[in-house]
Amino acid sequence: MRQPLLLLLALCNPALAFGQPPAKLYTVTNARKADFLAAQQAHPAPAISPDKTGFQQKGTALSLRLTTGQQVVFKSKPVLTFEEDGEELTYAGKLPTLKKYVLHASYYESSAYFLVDQTTGRVDTLRDAPIPNPGNTRLAATFHGYPYEGVPNGVDIYTIHNGRLRKELKIEQQKWLPYNLAWTSDNAFILQCLPIAEADKINNQTELNRALAAKAFYLRVSRR
Description:
The protein is mainly beta.
């Protein structure tokens, strides 16, 4: 069953009022830019390694070799009649700390990331690039539905146990966009966000950088 809206930002309120998720596993509070920059420096997000060991591509088929010696194959779906039916897969690399291959999927109006376990071949689908916490016990992935009307923006949070991902919380709303995320500990992170009204004014990367420097606000998400 689809979860209801979990968190709603009241941009008109300087205190950034929120409705809390029913389980109350997490709290959301204001944070400072200085806190975000300190978290980025203390816990830089692990980069996706471009290592292609175990990866092969033949045409539209992407083959990944597991530690068991088995091969798992993924195939892009060409656009035949409708653009909405197409799926273009590219190899992004590996997350060595999680022992996962990373594939990127491009669709007509969206994209996704596939994490493929290097031992079992199990596939987990994320809406954006994975950002593990320092201890590799949780993983976050922000997502943008904007500029498509009615599509939410936010962040998904997963727990990691024996290489398996389980969604723990979803924050989604249509008032702001998350652009960057930095973990402050294994149980908390800070989001760098812009109001939708500011995002509407952005036409290129330079304007985005300026907006983030001048107009961004910061939210601390902490597990109780």
